[in-house]
Amino acid sequence: MPAPENRFKSALASGRVLYGCWAGFADPYPTEVLATAGFDWLVLDGEHAPNDLRTLMAQLQVLQGYDSAPVVRLPMGEVWAIKQALDIGAQSLLIPMVESAAQARDLVAATRYPPEGIRGSGAALGRASRFSAIPDYKSTANDQICLIVQMESRAGLDALEEICAVDGVDGAFIGPSDLAMDMGHAGDSQAPEVQAAMQHALARIAASGKAPGILANDHDSARRYRDWGATMLGVGVDVVLFAKAVRALRAAFDG
Length: 255
Prior knowledge:
It is a single chain. The protein is α/β, with parallel strands linked by helices. Strand 3, helix 4 and strand 4 form a beta-alpha-beta unit. The N and C termini lie far apart (64 Å).
């Protein structure tokens, strides 16, 4: 029996637009609610949301019966953190602040068992191998890992072609807010200079044969990024959606 098929990896390689949402509540209950909406993918955010290994695992568990593919964003690309995320059952990872091909190669190595990489051989303890119920897990797991690198700085964009050329990188995801910060626009991703840089970056990613991704903060931006070629398209953040909805509800009763 091989490792479970990563259908998100296959869908990403197909080139069709996959719509996703950020899951930032760090709890399985709202994440399961998100899954009922039919998004193609959900980012379980361990960078800016208060997730830890156990909350990430709990969300992976509740998503198992849904069509929304979980993508775990770690706060960093450390080997030990990648190893733990894979052992609890993550197959798709989004790693922030990637700025060089050497860094991308190190990330690929961390997600693969030897001889292709350096992943530690301890998944028998965890969900990834269904607690040793998948006898061929270690010999088949490498092919089912999906690695998406996140580019959020001018340095990352400068090295974009070299990063995308790394074998084992499935997609490159633009982080609009951090890129805008790095470009001196105080997080304003709508600044013309930032918009131009992102449009150019999405085209360059697509030309490399890897999947271009980006997060939009409003409907018009999402449509524009889709027109620019984004195929891993984030269209919302659950915490922001909830905050806007409850504030609008309360405001409706003022006056």
